[in-house]
Amino acid sequence: MFLPEYLQRLGVHAEDVAFKAGIIAAVFSLCDSATAIPWSVLSDQLGRKPVLLGGLLVSATSNIGFGFCSYLWQMILYAALAGVANGNVDVMRTTMAELVPLEELHPKAFAVLPAAAGIGFILGPSLGGVPEPDIPDCG
């Protein structure tokens, strides 16, 4: 992954990189775990659509922000925000169960979520790493 190199570019010493990357991953997981139930309660109160859209907005914001970090504390903050947004996954599963009317189709429907995430994990970095095309200067 790119995190160790990113941490080194921020000035983290090579012997501390693994520990700092672990802290970032732990913060993400802790925030994910801590917000799963509150997201579900909020979706019962406000409805599924606003909660899913809010979670996607927080997720997009945190991922974009993570890419522009200049300090370790910023990376930890954006990892926490990403974890908060990821707590929304249970709301997505509930929405899938509600949208798929036949119970015998639930296994296929629930297989779509991790498949889509896997495709995103493959395509996202691949597209993000594509160099810009050389465009001739017209002027």
Count up the domains.
Answer: 2
Tally of DSSP helical segments: 6
Shape verdict: globular
Kindly state the mean pLDDT as a whole number?
85
Q: What fraction strand?
A: under 5%
Distance between the termini: 40 Å
Tell me how many strands there are.
Answer: 0
H and E order = HHHHHH
Helix content: over 70%
- Low-confidence segments, given as residue ranges, are none
The biggest sheet, with number of strands, parallel, antiparallel or mixed sense and barrel status, is:
none
Q: Could you tell me the radius of gyration in angstroms? A: 18 Å
What is the structural class? mainly alpha
Description:
The protein is mostly helical. It contains 6 helices and no strands. The chain has 2 domains: 3-88; 100-130. It is globular and about 50 Å long.
In short:
The chain has 139 residues and is mostly helical. The chain contains six helices and no strands.
What is the topology?
Layout: H1 3-9, H2 17-46, H3 48-67, H4 72-86, H5 89-99, H6 106-128
